[in-house]
Backbone:
């Protein structure tokens, strides 16, 4: 089998409220991999708020696609090394890793379809059902928006909800968290996410203002580049730290682990060089008593979480319109049943390219 053709596109997907209060749209860089006598593979990367999607597509088209054409897509690890080791003089991660992720996900889709197995079973499944946490609560939401969103996820059975703590005043963040806790009652536990907005002292002060609320974790307290700072926060506060959505490789996660920067590790399959690397990060985490809680794109991350005994929840951010994909799993009783179709089980809806292609 050979890869004969790769088509890529940038899709612009408008957001609806409440997500639209913070983001007018998200963009997807979509890659469809065609083979000579085998199945087609779909991969994509999600660019939050649209940021950098055009650059990701250009990198994919000009630097990575030529490395895959004519190659056997079943040799995923070999092709991953070929892509990852390209351009060592100019790229490290970021845009290039988003592009590589989309192609790696497409290659695995072909492998699963060829084997006739869903990916989680191909990788050795531990479960066919993964609990999810509702996620959102952005800083631009009014309290009522946050509470309404949290209640919507709770009504879908989610026992966890994650909200942002973006106000510069730690007491205001506490007020918002308390309001959500009060509205949800004891059945739901909360996580909070600072999205890199704090420094070490600010994060410690914020955590002290929240530490009696039995939070599951405090996420990305400081700049993702600052592993030492994150570790200092983790040592100083009584809420477990989560981070990793902006880390791209096993090497970056090794540093997070060795420095004790986080208890929950959160690779994103669309950023951290695809399924191939995320699985390695998950195995590494298992050797160090770390839990893996994959970042967004739950429809893809489900397969990773269902194949790793140390996975803890997938992040359910309900942003995809119903006419974008076919095969999107539904949240029932706070969990997703992993799609049992061969590959990752997701396809673009028939006219999604025409409807959402960015202009
Ligand atoms: Mg986050």
Residues:
């Amino acid at each position: 089998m050979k890869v004969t053709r790769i088509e890529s596109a940038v899709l612009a997907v408008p957001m609806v409220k409440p997500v639209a209060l913070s983001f007018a749209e998200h963009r997807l860089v979509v890659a469809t991999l065609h083979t000579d006598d085998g199945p087609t593979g779909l991969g994509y990367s999600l660019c939050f708020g649209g940021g950098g999607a055009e650059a990701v597509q250009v990198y994919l088209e000009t630097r990575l696609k030529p490395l895959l054409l004519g190659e056997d897509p079943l040799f995923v690890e070999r092709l991953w090394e070929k892509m990852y080791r390209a351009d060592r003089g100019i790229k490290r991660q970021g845009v290039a890793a988003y592009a590589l992720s989309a192609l790696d996900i497409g290659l695995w889709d072909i492998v699963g379809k060829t084997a006739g197995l869903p990916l989680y079973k191909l990788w050795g499944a531990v479960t066919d059902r993964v609990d999810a946490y509702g996620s959102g609560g952005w800083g631009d939401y009014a309290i009522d928006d946050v509470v309404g969103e949290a209640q919507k996820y709770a009504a879908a059975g989610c026992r966890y909800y994650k909200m942002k703590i973006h106000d510069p005043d730690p007491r205001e963040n506490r007020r918002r968290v308390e309001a959500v806790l009060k509205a949800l009652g004891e059945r739901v536990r909360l996580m909070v996410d600072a999205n890199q907005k704090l420094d070490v002292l600010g994060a410690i002060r914020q955590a002290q203002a929240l530490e009696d609320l039995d939070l599951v974790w405090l996420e990305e307290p400081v700049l993702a580049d600052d592993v030492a700072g994150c570790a200092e926060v983790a040592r100083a506060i009584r809420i477990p730290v989560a981070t990793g959505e902006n880390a791209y490789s096993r090497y970056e996660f090794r540093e997070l682990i060795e420095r004790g920067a986080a208890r929950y590790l959160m690779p994103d399959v669309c950023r951290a060089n695809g399924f191939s690397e995320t699985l390695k990060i998950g195995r590494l985490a298992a050797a160090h008593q770390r839990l893996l809680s994959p970042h967004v794109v739950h429809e893809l991350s489900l397969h990773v979480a269902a194949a790793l005994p140390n996975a803890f929840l997938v992040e359910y951010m309900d942003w995809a319109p119903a006419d974008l994909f076919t095969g999107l799993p539904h949240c029932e009783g706070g969990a997703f049943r992993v799609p049992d179709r061969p590959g990752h089980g997701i396809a673009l809806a028939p006219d999604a390219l025409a409807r959402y292609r960015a202009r």
Summary: The first strand starts at residue 3 and ends at 14. Residues 193, 195, 219-220, 245 surround magnesium ion (CB under 6 Å). The chain has twelve helices and 15 strands. The chain has two domains: 3-116+349-356, 121-347.
